[in-house]
Amino acid sequence: MTTESQGARPSRQLQLRRVTAASAIYNQLYDDIVALRLAPGASLQEKRIAEEFGVSRTPVREAILRLSEGGLVDIFPQSATVVSRVPVSAIPEAVVVRKALETVTVEALAQKATHDDIAELDAIIERQRKFAALDDPSGFHEEDEAFHGAIAKFAGYPGIWTLLRTVKVQIDRARRLSVPVFGRMHQIVDEHVTIRDAIAAQDLAAAREAMLHHLSTVIPDVAELSARHPDYFC
Question: Measured between alpha carbons, how far is 129 from 140 in angstroms, rounded to an integer?
C-alpha cells in the first residue's frame, strides 16, 4: 500500500461518516415534516439539530439543503430556515400522477398475484385495522404506505412507488390533517379490502376502478383544509 493511499483512507472514512450522518438527519427531519411533528413554519436551528445528533453542522446543512430541494424547507439566508408551507398548487398535478401510476401497478398485480402476495396484503390490512381501533394515525399511515408499496413491489414495479413517494409528499402532509377525521381510517381499510378482493379475483377492471375510487377519497379537500389551517398552506 502506498503512502498516498494510506493518507487518503481517513479522508474517505470521514466523508462516509458525514454522508451517513447527513442521511440520518435528512430521514428523521423528512419523517417529522411529513407527519407534521414539525409543522409548517417551524424553525430549524442548525446548532440545536447538530447537538441533538452529536455531529458538526456540516451534515446538518447538507440534510437541510436536500430538504429544501424537495420543497419541504425554506431557507432564508442570514435570517432563518423554516419548514415550508404546503403548496396548494402542487397537489393537483401530484394527484394526476398518482392515479396514473397506481392504476398501472394494481392492474399489473391483478394479472399475476400469488397466494403469498394476497396473504401479505391481508396482513397489512389487519395491522391497519388494529391501528384504526387504537386511533393511531401515525401507525395507520405507515401501514397505508406499506399497502400501496406492496402492490407496486408485487406487480414488479417497485421503482414506481419510489417515484411516487417523492411526487406525493405534499399530498401526504395535507392528508395528515384529514386522516384524524372520525371514521376515516375505517373507511380507508374498507377501500383497501375492495382493492385486495379485486386483485385476488384477477379482475383488472374492478381493481382499476377500486384504486381510482380509493385515491379520489384519500386525496384531501385542500380548499377545506387550507381554510381550517391557513398557516399550513400557501
Answer: 8
